[in-house]
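Archive entry: two folds, one per protein. Generate the first.
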Amino acid sequence: MSTELTDRIEERRAGVGDPRALVGEFRRALLLVPFEGGGLWTASLSGVRWVCAFTDEEAFARFAAARGESGREWEFAELRGARLLDEIVPAMGGPAGVAVNIADPEGAMLFPPVVGIVPDTVAVDEGGQG
């Protein structure tokens, strides 16, 4: 589904590649985002809410298996990364970012609430909601 994004993630995790290209590819990517309790599935860590998104069904299946919920029927949306960053994150009412492929220790990537990733008005390093 999103092989270009996984390629950019792999490059950045290896310490090469352009961070701007990674963010650009994330913005263009179509991602799977699970629902939980009527809203998008999020996790909180250190005061930041992370929307959990997945590059493909296999990455999503690894997440479900890691939670011991492989047999569960999940609802999910397919959303562009740009929509997550520009609409969903600002609407969350506090510091928020996107965590991609969180069940893949070698392929996970965080898109934190900082300038250059989320709108400046909600970036924690620009006097936003932080």
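Generate the second and append.
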Amino acid sequence: MPAIESGTPACPDSADRQRRLALQLADMIPGAATIRVSLREPGAVWPHPHARVWDGAGQPIELSRTRATVAARWVVRVWPDADWTRPHTLDLASAVLTRSDLPTTGRGR
């Protein structure tokens, strides 16, 4: 695999991409522990990437609409084979994505 000047492989394997994304998201959203991603933003009538974030204690972290959309798009791009007709939760500590059909209202309370 060819390397770019930084020494990073030009085509990292998917596990490496997943770990790097989890680190980037944790850096972008301080205190975040989990991110729930879906293609149904509340209030939108068409599919639209959306993310909700919780800290380690299960308390929600507010995101701007732009930041929520960017985070959701990044997750969808790194896990393109996931069934995105259902929401998924990304654990930032382990970089593991799991399907999540739980409602977001009331979570962490």
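Annotation attached to the second fold: The first strand starts at residue 32 and ends at 38. The mean pLDDT is 84.
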